[in-house]
Automatic annotation (TrEMBL):
Transmembrane region(s): 12-32, 52-73
Organism the protein comes from: Paenimyroides tangerinum
Protein's name according to its UniProt entry: DUF350 domain-containing protein
Locations listed in the record: Cell membrane
GO cellular component: plasma membrane
InterPro entries: DUF350
Taxonomic classification: Bacteria, Pseudomonadati, Bacteroidota, Flavobacteriia, Flavobacteriales
Membrane topology classification: Multi-pass membrane protein
Protein family (similarity comment): Belongs to the UPF0719 family.
Principal location class: membrane
Length: 75
């Protein structure tokens, strides 16, 4: 059996954290771009006016972009 090296564990952990942060940053940038393209303030519409349909659309957008980012980062 192979003995797992502590540097391998730290390398894997570091890579996971870095790729996670890169994915989150890309997701936030994508959200801000969509927010600028839409005519109204989507967050205000969802929170204050309780627009469920818009919340579902944005949830689907976030899940879709997250899947794309995950596949791109994973390789």
């Amino acid at each position: 059996m192979n003995k797992i090296n502590m540097t391998q564990i730290l390398n894997g952990l570091t890579n996971s954290v870095v790729y996670s942060l890169v994915g989150i940053v890309i997701l936030l940038i994508a959200y801000l771009i969509v927010e600028k393209l839409t005519p109204e303030n989507s967050w205000k519409e969802i929170v204050e006016n309780k627009n469920i349909a818009l919340a579902i659309v944005f949830a689907a957008f976030i899940i879709g972009i997250s899947i794309i980012i995950s596949a791109a980062l994973h390789g």
